[in-house]
From TrEMBL:
It is found in: Cell membrane. It comes from the Bacteria. Gene3D superfamilies: MetI-like. GO terms for biological process: transmembrane transport. It is a multi-pass membrane protein. This is Binding-protein-dependent transport system inner membrane protein. GO terms for cellular component: plasma membrane.
Length: 256
């Protein structure tokens, strides 16, 4: 993980250097292509003023609720799909139809059903994360070699003990990949939904913050919010998911 972290730092340094060099050439208007110093000032002002922290906390709150609901539904639907061939075909059809459908395309319906509030955003997050998580979970269970199940049954494992003791660990790389895809999709859906709701006057979240700064032509503030999203993404990817991978997949010698 340290090697990956070092590469990320090197990539970010190179990217920042290119950005600053381009900004200083004056090819693009300074207001549209701010320098790193201007972005840093906007970032510092947003952090110490509490506005960025409050909006980031609100966005994370909505994402966590949406992901928890998606994980709960994924467990139920995937379990039924594994147990029933008919329901498995139904789930495959539902994934094929719903997964390519962008969450933002359902936003008018979500507003109609739930209004311009948290429920509509959570609905969009659940829709955007549920289908890839189901697809990975069902695929993971299907790829477990039958001999694993036979070994578990031979040592006396049945029912939930067989699932938790054999099936889940064997399919874990797929399960974790599904959660990681859900996490990234949740951010995309959330920011898009919050920016649209911003036009309806409902405040809250980093998407709303970005919309506000764009409306005020504070492009440095827009980039400051994007920096916060990138930092959260790197921390969750490298620290949380990296730690889980280290303690499970890598320790067990498994790969997807």
């Amino acid at each position: 993980m340290r090697e990956i972290f070092r590469k990320r730092i090197l990539f970010i340094i190179i990217l920042l250097g290119l950005w600053e060099a381009t900004a200083l050439t004056g090819i693009f208007p300074r207001m549209m292509f701010p320098t790193l110093g201007s972005i840093w000032q906007a970032f510092k002002s947003g952090i110490f003023g509490g506005e960025l922290i409050d909006n980031a906390s609100f966005s994370l709150y909505l994402i966590i609720i949406g992901l928890v609901i998606s994980v709960f539904l994924t467990i139920i639907l995937s379990t039924v799909a594994i147990m029933s061939r008919t329901f498995d075909d139904f789930i495959n059809t539902a994934v094929a139809v719903m997964d390519p459908l962008p969450g933002i395309a359902l936003l008018p319906l979500a507003i109609l059903w739930f209004g311009t509030g948290q429920k509509a955003i959570i609905f969009i997050i659940v829709h955007s994360t549920l289908w890839p998580m189901i697809l990975n979970t069902v695929t993971g269970f299907k790829t477990v070699p039958p001999i694993y199940k036979e070994v578990g049954e031979n040592i006396g494992l049945r029912g939930p003990r067989l699932v938790l003791g054999i099936m889940v660990p064997a399919a874990f790389p797929y399960l974790l990949t599904g959660v990681k895809i859900g996490w990234s999709r949740a951010w995309r859906a959330l920011i898009a939904a919050e920016m649209v709701f911003g036009t309806a006057g409902v405040s809250g979240g980093l998407g709303w913050y970005i919309y506000q700064q764009r409306y005020l032509m504070d492009i440095s503030g827009v980039f400051a919010a994007l920096v916060v999203i990138v930092i959260i993404g790197i921390l969750v990817e490298d620290l949380l998911f990296g730690y889980i991978e280290k303690k499970t997949i890598k320790r067990w010698g498994m790969t997807v």
